[in-house]
Write a structure and sequence with these properties.
Layout (H helix, E strand, L loop, with lengths): L1 H26 L15 H7 L3 E6 L4 E6 L5 E4 L14 E7 L2 E6 L4 E5 L5 E2 L19 E2 L4 E5 L4 E5 L5 E6 L8 E3 L3 E5 L16 E5 L8 E3 L16 E5 L5 E5 L4 E5 L5 E8 L1 H4 L25 E4 L5 E5 L2 E7 L5 E10 L4 E3 L3 E4 L5 E5 L3 E6 L3
Length: 380
């Protein structure tokens, strides 16, 4: 009897091991518990990563799905023929989604237009200047349930508009450290000027400032520490991108680094996702090695990803070149990865994604870039 029980326990253990290995292969996620985070030349980064849990995600092992788009998926395209009364647009650089449709900045017109869900463009709805609702810096849009936001660095303010684009009182004293910006119903996220740059006034503060949604005069918290010390290059590693969802969850990244840092609703560092991908390895990203600057030499290079979106359910979409990476969170807090390629055979085109929004039906999304606004469904 005891021998039979031992045999059954052994069988259960073997099956469990194979199921774990199989799940790891399917999700493309490393489950090796004793694999430490990468050891980089940046001590502050090494300390920061180890301050919370972390997970490697090997995108080379993720499933790749081709989504074939037809004309039925195209909500709007610059390449389509439009009615004469519609405006002629040339390059849509940023979008926000509301119940009324999609508001987008057009580069050539330097104005905001609305594209309805029926694919009709209307506008312009804004203009350059220094008067109420006018701007001299353009190209960034954000929205919450109440207003549409346009951060205007040149006029040192954040313009706010009702859904009909009527301007309301702007948020003043906008002097950010960088162009990144996001908002929900509770908070504003901006680059922190005090900790940014080659000679910051408050280098111990985080690179992202979190403020109440209606004012910049109070800072609730700062997150994402400087990882390149004052007086050293490459300062490009102190540049940050970020996304906040409606639950105050935040995803953030240092621009040249393919890692995502996740923060909970109390702005505490909760987890780091370390993305591994041959496509990223082949990019010309800046060397992390610290050095003193010499002359006016600049330091650029490729950015693995600058477009990512943290969804309300905790899932994350990341654009890497012309691929859309979907990082989905399980009940246990682990993330699995799928890769999507949006193919539009009618124009022999693969769509890269600059903006993504959930659609009205679960599993469906709107994706946009400079030329297209499309609606698609993720494969099961």
């Amino acid at each position: 009897m005891m021998k039979e029980i031992k045999s059954q326990l052994h069988l259960i253990l073997v099956v469990s091991i194979f199921m774990t290995l199989g799940l790891t292969a399917i999700t493309g996620c490393s489950r090796v518990p004793d694999r430490p985070p990468p050891d980089t030349p940046l001590d502050s980064l090494n300390t920061f990563v180890r301050s919370a849990s972390y997970q490697y995600i090997n995108l080379d092992k993720a499933d790749v799905h081709e989504i074939k788009l037809t004309s039925d998926n195209i909500v709007y395209s610059l390449l389509q023929d439009h009615a004469e009364e519609q405006p002629i647009l040339s390059r849509l650089v940023d979008y926000v989604k509301t119940d009324q449709g999609f508001y987008a900045f057009d580069f050539s017109e330097r104005a905001i237009f609305i594209i309805t869900k029926d694919g009709v463009a209307e506008g312009p709805l804004s203009r350059e200047g220094r008067g109420p609702g006018e701007y001299n810096s353009f190209g960034i849009l954000a929205a919450n349930d109440r207003y549409i936001y346009n951060p205007d660095i040149s006029n040192a303010r954040i313009n706010r508009y009702k859904r009909d684009m009527e301007p309301v009182s702007a948020i003043q004293q906008y002097q950010p450290g960088g162009r990144s910006f996001d908002v929900n119903n509770q908070v504003l996220l901006t680059g922190n000027r005090s900790s940014n740059g080659f000679r910051p006034t408050e280098p111990s503060e985080g690179l992202i400032a979190i403020s109440p949604v209606g004012s910049l005069s109070d800072t609730l918290a700062t997150i994402m520490p400087r990882i390149v010390p004052v007086g050293y290059q490459p300062q490009v590693y102190n540049g940050v991108e970020f996304s906040v969802n409606s639950n105050n969850g935040i995803a953030a990244a240092y621009r040249p680094l393919p890692w995502l840092f996740l923060f909970d609703e109390s702005y505490s560092h909760a987890k780091t996702l370390i993305l591994e991908y041959l496509v990223i390895d082949q990019m010309d990203t800046p060397d992390m090695k610290l050095f003193k600057p010499k002359g006016n030499k600049g330091f650029g290079g490729d950015t693995p990803f600058s477009q990512f979106k943290l969804m309300d359910d905790g899932d994350i979409f990341v654009s890497i070149e012309d691929e859309l990476i979907h990082l989905s969170e399980s009940a246990g807090g682990r993330y699995s990865a799928d890769i999507y390629s949006l193919q539009y055979p009618a124009r022999d085109d693969t769509l890269w994604v600059s903006n993504i929004f959930p659609a009205e039906t679960e599993g469906e999304f709107y994706a946009a870039n400079w030329e297209y606004l499309v609606k698609f469904k993720l494969p099961q």
